[in-house]
Structures are given as C-alpha cells and as structure tokens.
Amino acid sequence: MQKSFRRGAYLALVSLAILMLASTSFAQGKGHGGGVGGGMGNGGGPPSGFGVDRGSDKASAKSGGRSDNGLENASMNSNGRSDTGLERARRAHENMRNADRDLEDHPELPRMLHVSANSLRNGYQTALTINPNLTFGNYVAATRVAQNLSPRFPNITRDRILAGLASGRSFGRTLHDLGLSDRETKDAEERAREEIKQAKKTK
What is the pTM of this model? Predict the structure, then answer.
C-alpha cells in the first residue's frame, strides 16, 4: 500500500513539474511574439524611407536639391545639343539646295574648275558636314584660289582655306594667315572673283 501511495505521489509531482515548465515556455513564447509585432509597426511593412526612394530622398536632402537640379540641367543640356544639331542640319540642307540651283543655272562652273558637276557637288556636301554655314560661293572661290596659288604657294590648299573659314575667319584673313601679303591676298581674291563671274556668264 505504501509503495503504491509513494508511486502515485511521485507521478503527481512529475506531472506538476511538467505542467509548470510548459506554462513557463508558453508565456515566454507569447512575449517574443508581441515583440516581433511591435518591431514591424504599421501592419508589418518596412520602415519609412526604406529602399531606393529612401536613398534618393537622402541624397536630395543632403545636397539641398542640387541632385535634382543636376538631372534637370542634364536634360536641358541634351535638348540644347539636339536643337543645335537640327539647326546645323537645316543650314546645311538649305545651302545644298542653293548649290543645286547654282549648278543648274551655271553649268559652266565645274568646267572652269576642271571638275565634273557631281565631283563639285559631292565635295561641297562633304565640306558642309564640317561647316554647315559654308556657302557654295565660298567653296567655289576656295577651290579656284587654291588652284591659282598652289604652283607658287604649295601650302595654300582648298582644305586649309576651308578650315580658316570654318574657324570664323574671313576669306582674306585666311589667305593672309597662310602667308600671303595684303597685296597678294587682294589680287588672289579679285582674280578668282573675275574668273567665277565670267564662268557664270557663259551659256
């Protein structure tokens, strides 16, 4: 009888100890769960300003808005380049149309320059890619002046004359910079002008 009583008491104590341990574990688990929920906040979403937008906001705030201004300036600069390119193309196209009319009205110009009409037209078209403001008259004059002067002044070529015009210098200033005196420059211009004039009169 005593052994049965002792055994029953022992089992009761063990059962009570197990219940106490289980209750303690349950209480601790519930406490951790509350902690996680509080950490997420606002329905468990990420903290405010998290991710890419957070970095952008900080960059803008720290730079005092300069980062935003930089993006706007880049866009404006790009548009400026685009507008400039369109204007250059428009000028080149307009000058090319004038050249076609000039060649149609004065077919003797290529012959005076000892070139074919296609060669003269193609050469001018190539020159326009570098200097869209170059007129066909100046291209013809540069070609003729170079032809007249090259025997005595090998350094004076059409390409060098065109480079001077592209830099913004006048025809006369370009020739002077290439080594001609004031008198030689004047004579070269007058001779080429007269030859071109005579060629245009020829039908």
Answer: 0.60
